[in-house]
Design a protein that fits this description.
Elements (H helix, E strand, L loop, with lengths): L16 H8 L4 E5 L4 E2 L15 E5 L3 E10 L12 E8 L4 E6 L14 E8 L5 E7 L4
Parallel strand pairs: 6-8
Antiparallel strand pairs: 1-2, 1-3, 4-5, 4-7, 5-6, 7-8
C-alpha cells in the first residue's frame, strides 16, 4: 500500500494494541466474548452485552457491506486526504460496524450504494500503524 500523508494517526493503547498489530500484519481482528459468543467493537476489557471479562481477539472475515457514507469535499483539519474522499460505516459479516475510508470507487453518489459488498485492505501509515479501509468487492 502507498505511504499515507496523514498528519494525525491513532495512538495504540493497551486495549487497542492487538487491533493495530494485526492491521499492520494485514489482518482484521475484533474483540470476541467467550460467554456471549459474539463480536463487539470498540475494544474494551469486558463484553458490553453481558459484562464478562472473558474476551479475546479473534480473526474477522474482513468482508462487509456499506451501511452509510458521506463524501468529504474538504478534509478534516490536520488531515491531508485527497478530496473528495468517501468515509463510510461498514457493517462487517460479524455484526459490528466500523468507520473507514471507502476506496477504489469514485467519490460520487452515482457510484456508491448502501448495502454494496466491501472487503478490507490496509493502508501503511508508518512504523506502527496500518489503517483499515474498504474497497468494493471485485474492484482491484
Amino acid at each position: 500500500m502507498a505511504e499515507t500523508s496523514r498528519v494525525l494517526l491513532p495512538k495504540p493503547t493497551p486495549e487497542t494494541r492487538p487491533f493495530w498489530d494485526s492491521a499492520k500484519a494485514g489482518r482484521l481482528v475484533l474483540p470476541f466474548c467467550d460467554d456471549c459468543a459474539r463480536f463487539f467493537f470498540y475494544p474494551r476489557p469486558f463484553c458490553p452485552r453481558c459484562f464478562s471479562g472473558r474476551v479475546r481477539w479473534q480473526a474477522a472475515s474482513g468482508r462487509g457491506r456499506l451501511h452509510t457514507f458521506v463524501i468529504h469535499h474538504r478534509p478534516p483539519r490536520n488531515l491531508r486526504l485527497p478530496t473528495p474522499c468517501v468515509i463510510g460505516i461498514v457493517e462487517l459479516e460479524e455484526g459490528v460496524r466500523l468507520m473507514a475510508n471507502i476506496v477504489g470507487v469514485p467519490a460520487d453518489p452515482g457510484h456508491l450504494r448502501c448495502e454494496m459488498p466491501l472487503v478490507a485492505e490496509f493502508e501503511d501509515a508508518g512504523d506502527d500503524i496500518a489503517l483499515p479501509r474498504f474497497r468494493p468487492v471485485g474492484v482491484p
